[in-house]
Amino acid sequence: MLTTNDLFERELKKLLVAEIERLQALISGPNISDYAQYRYYVGAIQGLLAAIERCDETCSIVDQTR
User: Fold this and answer.
1) Mean model confidence pLDDT for the chain
2) Do residues 51 and 15 touch, judged by C-beta distance below 8 A?
3) SS3 state of residue 47
4) How far apart are CA 15 and CA 7, in angstroms?
5) How far is Cα of residue 42 from the mean position of the Cα atoms in its chain?
6) Section 21-46 average pLDDT
7) CA 28, 34, 39 angle in degrees (round to 5)?
8) ∠ CA 15-21-24 to the nearest 5 degrees?
9) For residues 60 and 5, what is the distance between their CA atoms, to the nearest angstrom?
10) Cα–Cα distance for residue pair 31/25, rounded to 1 Å
């Protein structure tokens, strides 16, 4: 059975991945009008990926303390 923390982690990752996919679709479509906008979206994707990595690192630390 999943704990509340496990469910939170799973749902958070799903939301982050969905947002990454949405931003990637924006980048690959005709929605980008200039390079600054492209850089903004790429930076947002990198930030979301970093958040997922921090989640994984945190889970590893918590698992080691159990």
Assistant:
1) 92
2) no
3) helix
4) 12
5) 12
6) 92
7) 70
8) 140
9) 13
10) 9
Give the C-alpha separation, 64 to 31, whole Å. Answer: 44
Q: Which of 44-56 are b and which e, b meaning 16 or more Cβ less than 10 Å from the residue's Cβ?
A: ebeebeeeeeeee
Using CB atoms within 10 Å of the CB of residue 10, give its burial: 0 to 12 exposed, 13 to 18 middle, 19+ buried.
Answer: exposed
* pLDDT reading at 11 higher than 90: yes
By residue count, the chain amounts to 66
What are the structure tokens assigned to 15, written together? 């939301």
Read off the tokens for 19. 């947002």
Q: What token pair was written down for 50?
A: 């970093």
Q: Give residue 2's pLDDT band: very low, low, confident or very high (50, 70, 90).
A: confident
